[in-house]
Amino acid sequence: MFGMFINEFVGALVQVLLFSLIPLIFWLIFVRRKQNFFKWIGIKKIKHEGKWWGTACAILIATGLYIGLTSFAIRFLPEGVTTAGRDFAGKGFAAFPAVLAYGFIRTGLSEEIVFRGFLLKRFGEKFGFITGNIIQATLFGMMHGIPFGLATHNIPVTIIMTILPGAFGWFQGWMNEKKFGGSIIPSWFLHGTINVIVATIAL
């Protein structure tokens, strides 16, 4: 299982580098002299705004709805169509370090850099937060839903598996920008935790 962890960890780092390439090139060309890359992408200190209990309740409700509705929807997928994290199914708890690398680095960090770190912030600067958040959430949902559509050739499945992650992606964008001072660390932690939970259940 140590070999599985090494493979997953290395693959996760490669994916983060690939997902960071376009934002990095954009930063080098247009922003390098104005702002540090990590702050520009949202990897910065969290500054919470408002009441913590309200934010915590919103996160719990949104996360519970997303996990519950997604788990329900997955039951109706045709046999043979797999979901993210299924590569760990039946591997046992020894695979948990690999699950952590998968959840927090391969999927969590790489996707948050692109969608909430790069796309939301850039579209938000151009068109305003509301429009920017809708754009990044739509693209995030499509990234998840289209593969299911290609695998199933089923329009309702494609729509559902696009809307659910898209809606949660919208919530993550709102959470970062409106409650945590533009830091993507909260959505990274939340995204990674959800993916780890889902993959761990399959162990």
Structure notes:
By secondary structure, the chain is mainly α. The protein has one domain (50-201). Helix content is 76%, strand content 0%. The chain contains seven helices and no strands. Helix 1 packs parallel to helix 4, helix 4 runs antiparallel to helix 7 (185-201) and helix 5 (129-152) packs antiparallel against helix 6. The radius of gyration is 17 Å and the shape is globular. The two termini are 13 Å apart. The mean pLDDT is 92.
Q: Compute the average pLDDT.
A: 92
β content, as a range?
under 5%
Task: Write down how many β-strands occur, each being a DSSP E stretch of 2 or more residues.
Answer: 0
Helix and strand composition category = mainly alpha
Secondary-structure element order, as H and E? Answer: HHHHHHH
Radius of gyration based on Cα positions: 17 Å
How many DSSP H or I helices? Answer: 7
User: Mind summarizing the main beta sheet?
Assistant: none
Label the overall shape.
globular
Runs with pLDDT <50, length 5+? none
The percent range for helix content is over 70%
